[in-house]
Amino acid sequence: xxxxxRVDRDQVVAFRWRAHxxxxxxxxxxxxxxxxxxxxxxxTGPRGARWALANRGVEGYDDADTLLAWTLRxxxxxxxxxxxxxxxxATTPLSEADAxxxxxxxxxxxxxxxxxxxxxxxxxxxxxxxxxxxxxDKGTLSTALxxxxxxxYLRRCVPCKTTHAWExxxxxxxxxxxxxxxxxxxxxxxxxxxxxxxxxxxxLGVRADPRFDVVRGYLxxxxxxxxxxxxxxxxxxxxxxxxxxxxxxxxxxxxxAPGAWSVLAEDLEALTDKPSAEGTVRLLGAYDAWLQLxxxxxxVPERARAKDLxxxxxxxxxxxxxxxxxxxxxxxxxxxxxxxTWEPWTRPTRVLSAAVEEQAExxxxxxxxxxxxxxx
Length: 376
Known about the structure:
Blueprint: E1 6-7, H1 9-19, H2 36-39, E2 41-42, H3 48-54, E3 66-70, E4 76-80, H4 84-90, H5 96-102, H6 107-112, H7 117-131, E5 136-137, H8 138-146, E6 154-157, E7 162-165, H9 167-176, E8 179-181, E9 189-192, H10 214-222, H11 227-234, H12 238-243, E10 249-254, E11 261-264, H13 268-271, E12 281-284, H14 296-299, H15 303-309, E13 317-321, E14 324-334, E15 337-344, H16 350-366, E16 370-375
Parallel strand pairs: 1-10, 15-16
Antiparallel strand pairs: 2-4, 3-4, 5-9, 6-7, 8-9, 10-11, 12-13, 13-14, 14-15
């Protein structure tokens, strides 16, 4: 089906920049009004979630007001504490097929034993809940869990030289068993979520509150989007995502980009607005949500630069101005001192260089370090 609405790359990037609230001034945002917390803020790297929120205007919040758990792509994500029950539902698989895809190779021994993946996840969630009565590090929990599981749930891990539960199901089940991650712990420490009844995968993600629905959330933050983009972001089958595509999503045409793109009807007017240049510069972490989009060519059309930005190992962060990536950056710590090295993609202006230095100072504050310098 065609569309009468056509937008270009600049409009798409500008819309997403506003949707991510990355133009907000320092201290102007709160946990309550930050849209990304409905979908989850990935917490990868030193104070990753705190820096991501600081880049969206949120600073100085209390850990007691947040929930940290393994959810999307079995990575740690931060949410509002007040939303924890809704998040438990929204982050469950959409179906048995979705659960099977999300656990990767772990599904094979389960299928061979005649065990549905959703049932296996419920077993894992229940046993983890029983074991973790007091805060417990991941290794201790894994060891205790292994002794309570049948062979289809276990794998021989060559790097560890031991047998333990498959990693993806282990992580996926934790939140559904009513367990959260204790912030700032490495190795991670799990603990029971106070006053929360475990879900044990009794409710699928298709029953999520629309505000926390992960497919809808992807469209809110990364629209216009295609079902395959959201499916890759969630590690879900395209068929399930397509079946769960919001009824109020409307088609749009993105100039020069193939495929069936959609945006939520409520966002259509904002999408077609003319982009404005505020000159806002952000140093976004390597796993900031802004860089988690799946149509990467929209953000960085140049293949060589995209390959460098999204490398598999040693991935850098991105220097972003008004939504456009203008360089990469890396942190280097020596005790309490932090050095930021950045590589501009074009000759930097004095204004851009000053903005990078200002952001590096903010980063050092968030990490509770002293900025030693900014290098190119």
